[in-house]
């Protein structure tokens, strides 16, 4: 997801749905469905693929209502084969490739108008009004059903709302060059018009989609359509609301802020709202070269450095130079005013970014709320534990940067089934997301782990010498420092996470880490450990990629107490690797050519089929294939065994690392389902409740194009989706695609 601070990055910087009706509990129905299927059966077909074309969807057929529970007196239906498709081959083509028998069509792309009065997108850099258009870099996404009357529905599969993150823009130097007529300004100061356009391209969109006949389309004139940008008004809620660290010129009481930024992963609450994670937000702020002294070298300097803003740091786009207006000044994070509390400048502005943000997709009149109780860091997705009446809810999260941590929030309130369809959805969010406990994970070498509470009641936090926490709000705002204090396990960039609806186990993608090394030097380098066990060299042509360049997927099984457990067991579900890599130290999951992948990022379980969908954001393997999406049928924690990796150190000693590897992949448990266009990341996944329609995002195709080649489309590394017949111009565009099965069946079966 637009990753700073790693070897694969182009930037220099650091869901389970629930039944909300009084009917039988969703998980009871789901487990019955899953148990009556032969989850580990599928066909190992040869790779036969279908390529995205310029036309609409093939006929879907079938009904659009929710699948009915099997009547107890009826015989069980024949088991549904999962992963019953031919594995897609690796591809370097500038197109979207899906299996034979499936059709993929572009639905909603950068610049598409979201109102009846907004003109069609010209895609030549002259477009404006992005507050009423699709933003850029489509990322995490969730589907929210609508009835024919336009009311919320958990069962509608032919009409709904897509809530979509618009994470960032494709840029070189300072400018988002594809979005300006001649590439934009690459020196400071930046023109106000360019800054305004780029700010509006970030954030979130809510867009109505519906099926008409057999084809899906987005509804340009829908009253539900909504954009939230990096300037939209937001409420701060939870333990840090009103905290001294959130006081700014814009909000002297520290209860509001403007905008959501670098939105990456998502979540869907059991009460029907959308959660979006703010990821690499710190790089958007500038900080003066003498700011440490201006702040009196106080503890705020420690916090700023921990979150990637040392004094003298330049911002990613130079938005602070757009003019004297307050909307530009806010991007300068320096102490410029004379006040003691920051109410006359934006020294604390960055503290208003880095949260899980809750949005009611059905009600555009309600301001979004930043849930400070879930901690402040580089958030990806937010995955809920399987709701159980009378038990707290857990929300699992990861901090996407090298050597960062895995977190869990546990609500103080116990789940009530009545809250599945509340009159006030954001007030329900207050109930479950503002009061509770935040934990960080420590993973042990024996396959066990602990959740450590981040609280001033923890002596390690209260007495932490590197940073003096003032109160619990301070702990939430500076969760990374609190996690440092308790000695949490530093991970290989925790990205998306998801909960297996069949057994409640939690899966985390660990995308990669160039800072793993057998001979660490300096504080940023780490030796391999049990949960992050690989340190190796992966050659990309003549280029050596060191560390853990291919990433892995970790999974956790909670101990006694389920969501509120303070202990767990873990193993590594899959290791990313090339099929030809060393099976003893790299390809530990025994991946074949139909399964090999690198840099897992997006991950989500299908609520209907239980398939685990894995998406990649890779640069290590892109000389062989574009990024991809795979379908998997996982087992459970402990279904494999212990492996010891032995590393020869420079000292002559041997470093022995024990790790726990899940059952090796088989042809019927892991298959490549999709490969994207050149330069793209595959991200964002949502399904309709019947499992027959899937929405996937294609982010930043053509991102490695040089701004110097803007005038010559033949030199773009991608021309997608224009080359698939969608929209005007040849400049590449991030987009949402819709995938259906030609026989009208469920995706993946």
Automatic annotation (TrEMBL):
The species this protein was found in: Massilia agrisoli
InterPro entries: PhoX (IPR008557), TAT_signal (IPR006311)
Compositional bias per record (Polar residues), positions renumbered to this chain: 514-527
Name by which UniProt lists this protein: PhoX family phosphatase
One of the Pfam families matching this protein, by short name: PhoX
The organism's place on the tree of life at top rank: Bacteria
Signal sequence annotation: none
Disordered: annotated segments: 514-535
């Amino acid at each position: 997801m637009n990753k700073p601070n790693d070897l694969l990055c182009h930037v220099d910087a650091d869901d389970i749905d629930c039944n909300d009706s009084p009917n039988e509990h969703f998980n009871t129905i789901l487990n019955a469905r899953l148990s009556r299927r032969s989850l580990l059966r599928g066909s190992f077909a040869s790779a036969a693929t279908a390529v995205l074309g310029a036309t609409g969807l093939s006929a879907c057929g079938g009904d659009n209502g929710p699948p009915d529970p099997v009547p107890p007196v009826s015989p069980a239906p024949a088991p549904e084969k999962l992963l019953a498709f031919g594995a897609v081959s690796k591809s370097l083509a500038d197109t979207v490739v899906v299996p034979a028998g499936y059709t993929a069509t572009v639905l909603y792309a950068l610049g598409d108008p979201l109102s009846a009065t907004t003109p069609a997108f010209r895609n030549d850099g002259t477009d404006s009004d992005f507050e009423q258009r699709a933003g850029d870099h489509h990322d995490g996404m969730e589907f929210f059903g609508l009835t024919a009357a336009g009311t919320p529905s958990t069962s509608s599969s032919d009409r709904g709302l897509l809530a979509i993150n618009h994470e960032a823009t494709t840029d070189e130097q300072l400018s988002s060059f594809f979005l300006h007529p001649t590439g934009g300004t690459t020196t400071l100061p930046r023109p106000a018009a360019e800054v305004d356009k780029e700010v509006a391209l970030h954030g979130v969109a809510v867009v109505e989609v519906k099926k008409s006949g057999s084809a899906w389309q987005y509804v340009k004139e829908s009253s539900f359509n909504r954009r939230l940008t990096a300037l939209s008004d937001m409420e701060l809620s939870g333990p840090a609301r009103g905290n001294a660290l959130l006081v700014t010129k814009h909000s002297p009481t520290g209860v509001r802020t403007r905008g959501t930024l670098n939105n990456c992963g998502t979540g869907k609450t059991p009460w029907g709202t959308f959660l979006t994670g703010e990821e690499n937000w710190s790089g958007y702020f500038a900080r003066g070269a003498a700011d440490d002294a201006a702040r009196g070298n106080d503890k705020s300097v420690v916090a700023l450095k921990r979150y990637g803003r040392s004094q003298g740091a330049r911002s990613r786009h130079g938005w602070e130079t757009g003019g004297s207006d307050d909307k530009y000044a806010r991007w300068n994070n320096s102490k410029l005013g004379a006040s003691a509390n920051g109410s006359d400048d934006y020294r604390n502005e960055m503290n208003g970014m880095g949260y899980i943000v809750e949005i009611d997709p059905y009600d555009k009149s309600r301001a979004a709320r930043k849930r400070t109780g879930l901690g402040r860091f580089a958030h990806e997705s937010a995955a809920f534990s399987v709701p159980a009446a009378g038990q707290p809810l857990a929300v699992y999260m990861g901090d996407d940067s090298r050597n960062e941590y895995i977190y869990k929030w546990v609500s103080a309130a116990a789940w009530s089934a009545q809250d599945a369809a509340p009159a006030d959805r954001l007030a329900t969010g207050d109930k479950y997301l503002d009061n509770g406990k935040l934990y960080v994970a420590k993973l042990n070498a024996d396959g066990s782990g602990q959740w450590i509470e981040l609280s001033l009641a923890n002596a390690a936090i209260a007495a932490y010498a590197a940073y003096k926490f003032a109160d619990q709000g301070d702990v939430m705002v500076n969760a990374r420092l609190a996690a440092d204090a308790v000695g949490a396990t530093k991970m290989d960039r925790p990205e998306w996470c998801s909960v297996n609806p069949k057994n409640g186990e939690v899966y985390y993608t660990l995308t990669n880490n160039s800072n793993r090394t057998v001979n660490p030097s300096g504080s940023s380098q780490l030796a391999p450990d049990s949960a992050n066990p690989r340190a190796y060299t992966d050659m990309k042509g003549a280029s050596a990629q060191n560390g853990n360049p291919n990433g892995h997927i970790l999974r956790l099984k909670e101990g006694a107490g389920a969501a509120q457990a303070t202990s767990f067991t873990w193993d590594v579900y899959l290791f990313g690797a090339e099929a030809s890599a060393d099976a003893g130290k790299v390809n530990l999951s025994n991946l074949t050519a139909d399964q090999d992948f690198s840099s897992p990022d997006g991950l989500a379980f299908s609520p209907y089929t239980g398939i685990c969908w894995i998406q990649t954001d890779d640069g290590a393997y892109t000389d062989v294939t574009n990024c991809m999406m795979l379908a998997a049928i996982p087992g459970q924690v402990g279904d494999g065994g212990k492996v010891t990796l032995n590393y020869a150190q420079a000292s002559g000693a041997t470093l022995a690392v024990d790790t726990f590897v899940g059952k090796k992949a088989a042809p019927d448990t892991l298959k490549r389902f999709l490969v994207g266009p050149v330069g793209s990341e595959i991200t964002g996944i949502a399904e309709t409740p019947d499992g027959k329609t899937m929405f996937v995002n294609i982010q930043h195709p053509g991102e490695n194009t040089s701004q110097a080649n803007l005038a010559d489309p033949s030199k773009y590394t991608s021309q997608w989706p224009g080359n698939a017949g969608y929209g005007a111009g040849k400049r590449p565009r991030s987009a949402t695609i819709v995938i259906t099965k030609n026989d009208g069946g469920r995706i993946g079966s």
